[in-house]
């Protein structure tokens, strides 16, 4: 790993400088994480007096539990929904802003602020709009003969959290798509238009393929967001229901650990989640390497 | 723009205007709801035009809170959120500046190990280590304190990497000149390195302030006393009144007040915000 060519020489100062960060990391990150790994191999009796080492029993139990498979499936559907809705909408808006040069700044200002809205607040906002008794959207949907009640219908509950989460994430995706579009050389578009390609054809054959690094990067970021930060959105709107139809992996860790006090199972799930984060981070860094070369 | 196509320009603006309206719509409805009396929500569908109860609703929430739901005045929760976000943002920046300085400007045993230890925090978001972290904080007696609210969120691999990357681009001559003039490492850090990093610090501050403000799960776990409630978690308490519909006007007023500060930060420092966002993800 690099340092500067010329460096300071001091025997103890670098350790002092690193101490605050490392102490916090060790106490609040590394130690709890290792605790999670340890207790994922143990079982506590109901009163918490005795713990026994049970090898992989917690893992086999979690992985063979249909409700875990259900949470995994929900997370996948949720992630797919948010990625599709949020990135699609953001890309459309980014392409438009890229065309509207003179007013780009104004539109950007009007589109970036949802980033600062807490996920739980985003959940409450959409929950209010979709409220089955007084909500505006169910009222409109009823006019089309569609009955909305996300307290009963699992599919509608999932749609609600997808919309609320996608809404909050639009600004982020939008900003990165705008940056991506600006880095596509204008000469390519010009050359294609001289060859007679219209704007739509130019977008699909030239610009969209050149955006693929940005698209891929955003996919990873959005999956990460759905997996972890969406906790507040779910807790505020559906609390994982109805009938576990919106219980995602993170929500299940919380329910089993904090509410159910099943430490062994919750820890095993935490460790599995860490595995997923490590995998995502690995992909992200591989990708960053590639983007530098690109 | 490559060629002149008036109809496409018109379509572009149409899409953007519709997009802006869709994005703003939920907040508009929430704001309208907060200006009405509770009776407006009893019959039929929610109102879409402002009511005349705005001053009353907001002053009640800011000043008294909702005793029934066990929430303190919004004013208190806003103050807590503000300090939590400030401590997290400033804390992250200070400890990351120091560790990046150590990693870039010194060569010492275990340097790589220290770097990787910090790197690992990237893979441990608070959501995956909820229970054991809670246990540690409880053992240290930090429940219901600002230290408990902020310390477990304050380590930052992202900020450390950002500063490391930036320090690598700072010209070598600056440091050599400082040394010729007899400045020690801390003097160089304070008088040269921090001043040249100020834009990066500001950009990162915007992002980290928002990060701190929108925290939900962690404050929900570590605070049981009303005096430490943050606004974002307080909303959940407001909604969770048993056996009755929430008081929509009061909930929505709280929602508006909860989003106002971070949204204003983003809007007033848009350039720094975009810079921070793009750079922290590299």
TrEMBL record, chain A:
One of its GO terms (cellular component) is plasma membrane. It comes from Devosia pacifica. It comes from the Bacteria. InterPro entries: MetI-like, MetI-like_sf, UgpAE/MalFG_permease. This is sn-glycerol-3-phosphate transport system permease protein UgpA. Part of the ABC transporter complex UgpBAEC involved in sn-glycerol-3-phosphate (G3P) import. Probably responsible for the translocation of the substrate across the membrane. Its main location: membrane. Keywords: Cell inner membrane, Cell membrane, Membrane, Transmembrane, Transmembrane helix, Transport. Coiled coil: none annotated.
Automatic annotation (TrEMBL), chain B:
Its main location: membrane. Signal peptide: none annotated. GO terms for biological process: transmembrane transport. GO terms for cellular component: plasma membrane. The chain crosses the membrane at residues 12-33, 82-106, 113-131, 143-163, 192-214, 248-267. It comes from the Bacteria. Keywords: Cell inner membrane, Cell membrane, Membrane, Transmembrane, Transmembrane helix, Transport. It is a multi-pass membrane protein. It is found in: Cell inner membrane; Cell membrane. Residues 78-269 form the ABC transmembrane type-1 domain. Belongs to the binding-protein-dependent transport system permease family. Part of the ABC transporter complex UgpBAEC involved in sn-glycerol-3-phosphate (G3P) import. Probably responsible for the translocation of the substrate across the membrane. The complex is composed of two ATP-binding proteins (UgpC), two transmembrane proteins (UgpA and UgpE) and a solute-binding protein (UgpB). This is sn-glycerol-3-phosphate transport system permease protein UgpE.
């Amino acid at each position: 790993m690099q340092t500067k060519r010329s460096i300071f020489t001091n025997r103890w100062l670098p350790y002092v400088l690193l101490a605050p960060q490392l102490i916090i990391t060790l106490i609040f990150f590394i130690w709890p994480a290792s605790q999670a790994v340890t207790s994922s191999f143990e079982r506590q009796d109901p009163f918490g007096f005795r713990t026994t080492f049970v090898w992989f029993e917690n893992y086999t139990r979690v992985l063979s539990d249909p409700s875990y498979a259900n949470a995994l499936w929900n997370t996948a559907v949720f992630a797919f929904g948010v990625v599709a809705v949020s990135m699609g909408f953001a890309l459309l808006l980014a392409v438009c802003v890229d065309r509207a040069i003179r007013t780009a700044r104004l539109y950007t200002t009007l589109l970036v602020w949802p980033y600062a809205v807490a996920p739980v607040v985003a959940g409450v906002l959409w929950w209010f709009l979709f409220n089955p008794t007084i909500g505006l959207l169910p009222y409109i949907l009823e006019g089309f003969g569609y009955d909305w009640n996300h307290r009963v219908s699992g599919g509608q509950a999932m749609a609600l959290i997808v919309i609320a989460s996608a809404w909050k994430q639009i600004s982020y995706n939008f900003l990165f798509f705008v940056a991506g579009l600006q880095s596509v050389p204008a000469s390519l578009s010009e050359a294609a238009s001289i060859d007679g390609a219209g704007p739509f054809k130019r977008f699909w054959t030239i610009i969209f393929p050149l955006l693929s690094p940005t698209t891929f990067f955003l996919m990873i970021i959005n999956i990460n967001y759905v997996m972890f930060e969406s906790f507040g959105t779910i807790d505020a709107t559906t609390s994982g229901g109805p009938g576990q139809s919106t219980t995602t992996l993170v929500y299940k860790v919380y329910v089993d650990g904090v509410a159910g006090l099943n430490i062994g199972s919750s820890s095993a799930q935490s460790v599995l989640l860490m595995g997923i984060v490590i995998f995502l981070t690995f992909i992200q860094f591989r990708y960053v390497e590639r983007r530098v070369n690109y | 723009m490559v060629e002149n196509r008036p109809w496409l320009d018109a379509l572009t603006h149409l899409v953007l205007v519709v997009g802006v309206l869709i994005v703003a719509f939920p907040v508009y409805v929430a704001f309208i709801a907060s200006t009405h009396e509770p009776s407006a929500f009893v019959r039929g569908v929610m109102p879409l035009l402002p009511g005349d109860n705005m001053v009353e609703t907001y002053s009640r929430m800011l000043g008294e809170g909702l005793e029934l739901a066990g929430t303190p005045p919004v004013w208190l929760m806003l103050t807590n959120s503000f300090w939590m976000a400030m401590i997290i943002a400033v804390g992250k920046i200070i400890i990351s500046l120091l560790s990046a300085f150590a990693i870039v400007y010194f060569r010492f045993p275990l340097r790589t190990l220290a770097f990787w230890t910090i790197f690992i925090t990237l893979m441990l978001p608070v959501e995956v280590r909820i229970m054991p972290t809670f246990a540690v904080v409880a053992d240290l007696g930090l429940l219901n304190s600002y230290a408990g609210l902020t310390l477990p969120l304050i380590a930052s691999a992202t900020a450390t990497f950002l500063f490391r990357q930036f320090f690598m681009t700072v010209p070598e001559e600056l440091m050599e000149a400082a040394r010729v003039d007899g400045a020690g490492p801390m003097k160089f850090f304070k008088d040269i390195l921090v001043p040249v990093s100020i834009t990066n610090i500001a950009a990162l501050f915007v992002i980290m302030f928002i990060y701190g403000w929108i925290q939900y799960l962690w404050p929900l776990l570590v605070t049981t006393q009303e005096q430490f409630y943050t606004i974002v978690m307080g909303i959940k308490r407001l909604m969770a009144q048993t056996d009755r519909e929430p008081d929509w006007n009061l909930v929505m007023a709280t929602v508006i007040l909860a989003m106002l500060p971070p949204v204003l930060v983003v809007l007033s420092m848009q350039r720094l915000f975009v810079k921070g966002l793009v750079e922290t993800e590299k």
